[in-house]
Amino acid sequence: MQFKEFSTNIVPQIEHTLENELAKSASVAELQEAMRYAVMAGGKRLRPMLSLAVIQTYGLPVNEYLKVASAIELIHTYSLIHDDLPAMDDDELRRGKPTTHRAFGEDTAILAGDALQPLAFEWLTDLDQPLNDAQRVQLVIAMAQAAGGAGMVAGQVLDIEAMKTSAVTLAETQAIHYHKTGALIAYALQAGAIMANANEDIQNILHDFGMAYGLAFQIKDDIDDYQPGKIESQAYPTILGLSETVVALQKQVDLAQSLLLKFEDITGLDKTLLASFLDYFTETLEQTWE
């Protein structure tokens, strides 16, 4: 199976799961509506798809893991709500719609984010999921590490600090993106391995694949946003130049591919579906850049 077929099939199921579960997420109507507004505002649903792609690769019934895999979207959404606040990025629009604090007020937006974070852990530990207690504990620890002060939140702090300076080094930019973007994507792959009851070595391989994918994702985003003469201190084309940025993207894609080869060699499983997620970068890499 390839990415297009998989996503066409699985994204509507993720959306349905999020919609249904969020309907019983809070006891106060305004809070529930703000939570739903933020989560259901669209997006690729990349992170739960990656977890479920691992499940599919192991031949397990994907539909039984939808709720636990979708928990990561709650963490991702809470981070977006808080990132958009006036105290941080001060954005008025997200995906063409008013940001949550513009639609519901800063107070309700903050609380909606606060409520989404523990809800994610509630979903991970739901006893109706086909997981044993050890797997639930592993998922909770992995998510906490990826989302907290050693992961996504650390990345946001580094990002804020970097915005106060006129020049940012490559190492500083990579540190921001490894934490802010890579950590949750890496978690998604590791979580799929935990759900599939894979051993620690396989979890680490898939985690590292996720880190390479996350950094490639950010580099591609910077290339796509590139405009000659436009200077953005944290953007890879500003730091490396456009041609070297494309080289950096290729290096991350190559690293991701090598990790999947290792995964396939150790497990004997078909890596086709996971490898097809890397097709996202093909057009950018094949384009002629000047």
From TrEMBL:
The keyword DNA damage does not apply. Its cofactor is Mg(2+). Pfam families: polyprenyl_synt. Gene3D superfamilies: Farnesyl Diphosphate Synthase (1.10.600.10). One of its GO terms (molecular function) is (2E,6E)-farnesyl diphosphate synthase activity. It comes from the Bacteria. CDD domains: Trans_IPPS_HT. Its EC number is 2.5.1.10. The keyword Cell division does not apply. It catalyses: isopentenyl diphosphate + (2E)-geranyl diphosphate = (2E,6E)-farnesyl diphosphate + diphosphate. GO terms for biological process: terpenoid biosynthetic process. Belongs to the FPP/GGPP synthase family. This is Farnesyl diphosphate synthase.
